[in-house]
Amino acid sequence: MLTPQLLYILSAGRSGSTLIDMVLGGNEGIVSVGEFHRLSLYAREAELCTCGTSVADCPFWTEVAKSAAERFGADESPAQTLCKNEVMLLGEKIGRFRNLIQMGLLSSKLTLPWMLASPLVGREYVRSIKNSWVWLQAIAQVTNCRTVIESTKDVRRLKLYYLSNPKRVRVLHLTRDGRAVAASAMRRTGCSMEKAAGDWRRKNHRISLVLRGIPRQFICSVRYEDFCTTATIETSRILEFLGEFGQVPSIGLRKTESHNIGGNPMRFDHNVTDITLDTRWRDQLSPAELKTFRTVAGRMNDALGYPID
Predict the structure, then answer these.
(1) In the structure, what pLDDT confidence band is assigned to residue 1 with cuts at 50, 70 and 90?
(2) Distance between CA 187 and CA 170 in Å, rounded?
(3) Phi/psi of residue 50, nearest 5 degrees
(4) Distances (CA, A) of 133 to 43, 136, 144, 298
(5) Pick from 256, 257, 31, 3: which is nearest to 143 by CA?
């Protein structure tokens, strides 16, 4: 079985990645798996798949695990295969100097052939990314899909995927007005605007560095706001980017048919089936908070196409 194409959604958190992931996954030849790096963790801790069944008992992931077990060379139950073959970047104990090299390689535009890069990133990271490709092949075998979508968003994970198999990796660079993302962080965690804006700025800075090391033709840029207001047009554009020409785009949210791992809790709300633009930040943020955001992250927001008046 050939390795499927991977579409990796790269964005700051709370930028609409779960929504776009699930919508795209409803199109022919494409399967979305959400925050796939949590697969083994969710299986071990009996967390729910988006379909409503625990990951270890989910019929979809059970079939995928059976296929993956053959590739891992293991004679074990699907649940054991899911729990044991880790895909999360857990890392290992390495010296400070090597850690700096590792972070520099995985969070910058620097690219190296995998043969040279793999010793620098460490055995555990290499094992996790190797396991990830095995799982992706198993998903493709079970579903006969051409593209698998992952919305983990971590820049290190994208860089490892790209360095290990550059021809099979595509990037969906998703952006959202930083004021909306900061407001979401403040609602969820109670943090200050200064912290929320700073975290958002740093995340997007790392994203911009990593994207410089990936050929432009492998990157599709999408704004959350555009996707929500013109979903059919944006979905069609992304499908063409993936090589799915002539396909009538589907923009439905078929949540009970999805098998995403992790992501926004909206994936369990079966009453929400329409794509709507979330603009709560406009009413939530005070003039003082907007001023703080402008000071901390206004330049980054402007660079991403969201000028602040």
Answers:
(1) low
(2) 32
(3) -60, -25
(4) 18, 5, 15, 38
(5) 31
- Rounded to whole angstroms, how far apart are CA atoms 179 and 308? 10
User: From CA 9, how far away is CA 21, in angstroms rounded?
Assistant: 8
Q: Cβ(49)–Cβ(58) under 8 Å? A: yes
pLDDT at 97 over 80: no
Give the whole-angstrom CA distance, residue 204 versus residue 293: 14
- What is the residue whose two structure tokens read 């078929």? 254
124 neighbors 88 (Cβ within 8 angstroms): no
pLDDT-derived band of residue 26, with 50, 70 and 90 as boundaries? very high
In b/e form, how buried is each residue of 289-298, taking b as 16+ CB within 10 angstroms?
A: bbebbbebbb
CA distance 155 to 203: 9
Tens of pLDDT, residue by residue over 251-273, are 988 888 899 999 988 898 887 77
Q: Which conformational region is residue 166 in: left (phi greater than 0), alpha (psi within -120 to 50 degrees), or beta?
A: alpha
Other Cβ atoms closer than 10 A to 180? 24
Convert the pLDDT of each residue in 42-67 to its tens digit: 999 999 999 999 999 999 999 999 99
- How far apart CA 306 and CA 91 sit, in angstroms, is 36
46 φψ region: left (φ > 0), alpha (ψ -120 to 50), beta (else): left
Rg (alpha carbons) of the chain, rounded to whole number: 19
What's the mean pLDDT in 22-32? 95
Separation in Å, CA 113 to CA 209, 210, 306 = 18, 16, 36
Predicted confidence (pLDDT) at residue 178 exceeds the cutoff of 70: yes
Q: How many CB atoms lie within 10 A of CB 32?
A: 28
Phi, psi (degrees; rounded to nearest 5) at 8: -105, 120
- State what percent of residues in the chain have pLDDT above 90: 83
